[in-house]
Amino acid sequence: MSKRPLADQPKAKRGRYAAAKYTPEVKQVVTGMFLAARDDGVQTGKFLSWLEKADTPVPKRTLNDWAATVRAGLPVISPSKKTGASAIATPEQSAVLCGFVLHQNAKHIEVGRQDGAKFMLDQYGLVVSNRTIGNIFAKADLTRRRMRLRTSGYMTTEDELVAMYVDYVKELRLNGALKHTHASLD
Known about the structure:
The chain is an all-alpha fold.
């Protein structure tokens, strides 16, 4: 514990992204004001001190990044998050994978994550990790455990699985996805 009095303690660190608390509209206005002030000869440090006095602190680098974005003719920030990897499989491909699992289960054939990954590689040429296959199974209300010979590997009964499969095929037909395929509900 520090022996300095509380008044002498350094200020607590700000959040990692202090400027993230501002809406895109506020960022756009602050940036517009900054560019106008800079065109009128106001130094960046002076403008930043004005922001501090107005209880709107923005780091210098962040402000310069916003200004570069606006000068490029783009909005300061997009309201949608664009980080993270995009999904490797489309929802339709994931649904087909789950249909494959249900079909194999109906024939009492074991299906596991490795089998799902092999199916995705064979059918779509996609290299999908076993973990991702497990996530796809979980989103479809299938367990993360290895699928067993009977429906014990599922969280749902056999009748519920059949109903899910029938509903899925009906939805595909309504959407026209089965127009040029030869599929049946045997």
